[in-house]
Amino acid sequence: MKLNQTLALIASFTTALQLATAGNITGKVTLKGAPPAEKEITGVTDPVCSAAHPTPMKTRFYMVGTGGELADTVVMLKGITGKSTGASAAPLLIDQNGCEYLPYVGAVQTGQKISVKNSDQTMHNVHPTPVNTAGGNKEENKAQFAGAADLTFTFPAAETFLRFKCDVHPWMFSYITVVDHPYFAVTGKDGAFTIKDVPPGKYKIVALHRKAAKDGVEQDIEVTADGAKLDFALDVK
Length: 237
Ligand SMILES: [Cu+2]
Prior knowledge:
This protein has helices at 3-21, 47-51, and strands at residues 23-32, 74-78, 92-96, 101-102, 105-109, 114-118, 124-129, 142-144, 151-153, 159-165, 173-179, 184-186, 192-198, 201-209, 213-223, 228-229, 232-235. It is mainly beta.
């Protein structure tokens, strides 16, 4: 066996070993108490948008299940930088469907592609408005006609809740958190999250919710080869 083949084999063994000793962090995010009622969206004049919603659209501030399960919460490890594998990660797909962005809240790594699709028979414009422009995140504003190809965006710097908006339909928002490492997840309707393949160690872990935990609620966590389990209970704000 040639030397470079041997080295490649050792490298792949090492990677496998690291993965074998890495654990998943699992848990659930719940909301304590009843959230305020969502607001009805008014001023929908585009017939394509109103046709998609026989009952009026509402804001999506608190997506809560009957047991308090809280969706749209970003859970991530804190204090890790420069560990992004975003360049080789699969793109995050954001769909514009019924004149709403899906997902409403998402997360990507720095440098990871975000593909924005237009499933509607109307024109949208995709307008990310980052705050961390000093870090290199750029504001862009691109029109996207019905049937047009997906648009692609990437952001080089970490930022929480980077806002995407549509200037044609002023109620359309999506909030994408950009993370400088792969250790994060976004809760779904069941409030559950899984952060995969975390190397064992002690970390700070933070839950971010646009309304209930805008600046984040932090906990300490120790991850072993068997992983770790941890829940968050957030207050209504
Ligand atoms: Cu739009």
